[in-house]
Recover the amino acids of this structure.
């Protein structure tokens, strides 16, 4: 396929995305949830920016009744969001451990060796690819954010600073690069042009190569009321049904799927070329059947989700109002993307949270978007000795409570809002 033809296909796909579903082009007529207006979740502010105008965009999530893709409109371009990024994956010990386990397992499963090539898309700071290096497997990261790519290079992980799609895939293939393994962990949701991205993967993949993609599972998101995992840089939310249709559109097929606990419940899918020798695991058909039984092809299932989000908002605000009226001191733990969705949807600002803390030094001294809650180093909790600590990255609550167990010494308790409001006393739990 020549470059002119590729450009024509991209233009055609872009028109369909603007008119409707970003995967299949169908008209969007159904709503999952409307979380109102919110600023970009990674736009942490300096003190001198607090009185400047902030841009707000809708968080109105729609569902395609043809391919079942759950999606937001593209209000912000990927270049705006990802050219400089505040998230460094290596700061999460659990995420690094998860990556190491994956690298060791997939190396054995695929028989990777010194003549193989593993390419990770949205490779961040090298938190994953670094684990292939001691195994002697050549790697290449593709990361659009130059600031985090520099951290990967410092680890010795070869990294290209660019956005991935057909354009870059053609260039890489022309350079003689073809991948035995293409990895996309928690990037699929952040791709605005899905067809261009998946077509690029197809071009880069060797005939017998394998693609693994990890992403939050929309079935779990809905079942456990994880509405705060919705934000502008997540353009799409996937079921296995949707991924099956997406793979088929691009000459690939599902060969396996694993259910993971990460990010509140994720899927790891294995894709291969349609005519490859890989056999299909029974787990694929079993999960596709389960999603159908759970109503993932029925629009009424999606329509019922909005009330769950509204109930969670009321419950959290009722507790916070009561605690503050009793004179309690409350702070937050973490300044994650999901936390900013929660804070803005619930209108929780410094009148409820004195401050929040984060392990990422990039965020220290800044303020959360929209609600302007100050972000401090972790040690600020020990100095302030709050009565309650709201865990904003609830998906790693076990890690947080273990790390901060000492707050029990002054009687502090943890608040978790997902999947339902819970108050956790570290002196009684998580021993």
């Amino acid at each position: 396929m020549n470059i002119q033809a590729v450009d024509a296909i991209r233009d055609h796909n872009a028109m369909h995305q603007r008119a409707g579903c970003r995967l299949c082009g169908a008209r969007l007529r159904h709503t999952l949830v409307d979380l109102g207006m919110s600023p970009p979740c990674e736009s942490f502010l300096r003190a001198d920016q607090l009185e400047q105008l902030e841009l707000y965009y809708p968080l109105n999530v729609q569902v395609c009744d043809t391919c079942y893709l759950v999606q937001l409109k593209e209000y912000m371009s990927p270049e705006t969001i990802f050219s400089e990024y505040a998230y460094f994956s290596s700061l999460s010990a659990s995420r690094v451990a998860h990556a190491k386990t994956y690298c060791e397992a997939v190396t054995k499963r695929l028989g990777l060796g010194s003549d193989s090539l593993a390419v990770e898309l949205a490779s961040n700071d090298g938190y994953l690819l670094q684990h292939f290096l001691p195994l002697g497997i050549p790697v290449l990261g593709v990361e659009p954010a130059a600031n985090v790519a520099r951290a990967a290079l410092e680890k010795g992980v070869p990294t290209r600073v660019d956005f991935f799609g057909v354009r870059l895939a053609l260039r890489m293939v022309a350079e003689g690069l073809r991948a035995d393994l293409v990895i996309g962990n928690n990037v699929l949701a952040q791709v605005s042009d899905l067809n261009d991205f998946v077509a690029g993967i197809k071009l880069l993949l060797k005939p017998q190569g394998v693609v693994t993609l990890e992403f939050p599972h929309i079935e779990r998101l809905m079942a456990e009321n994880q509405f705060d995992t919705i934000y502008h840089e997540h353009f799409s939310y996937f079921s296995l049904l949707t991924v099956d249709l997406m793979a088929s559109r691009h000459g690939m097929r599902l060969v396996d799927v694993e259910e993971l606990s990460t990010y509140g419940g994720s899927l790891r899918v294995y894709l291969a070329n349609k005519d490859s020798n890989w056999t299909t695991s029974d787990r694929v058909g079993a999960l596709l059947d389960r999603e159908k039984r759970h109503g993932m092809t029925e629009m009424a299932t999606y329509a019922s989700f909005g009330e769950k989000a509204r109930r969670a908002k009321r419950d959290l605000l009722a507790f916070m109002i009561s605690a503050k009226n009793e004179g309690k001191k409350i702070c937050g733990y973490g300044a994650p993307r999901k936390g900013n969705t929660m804070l803005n949807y619930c209108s929780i600002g410094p009148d409820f949270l004195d401050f929040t803390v984060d392990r990422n030094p990039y965020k220290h001294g800044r303020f959360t978007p929209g609600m302007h809650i100050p972000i401090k180093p972790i040690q600020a909790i020990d100095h302030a000795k709050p009565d309650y600590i709201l865990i904003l990255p609830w998906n790693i609550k076990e890690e947080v409570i273990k790390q901060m167990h000492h707050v029990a010494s002054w009687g502090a308790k943890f608040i978790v809002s997902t999947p339902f409001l819970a108050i956790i006393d570290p002196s009684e739990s998580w021993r």
Summary: The radius of gyration is 22 Å. The first helix runs from residue 3 to 19.
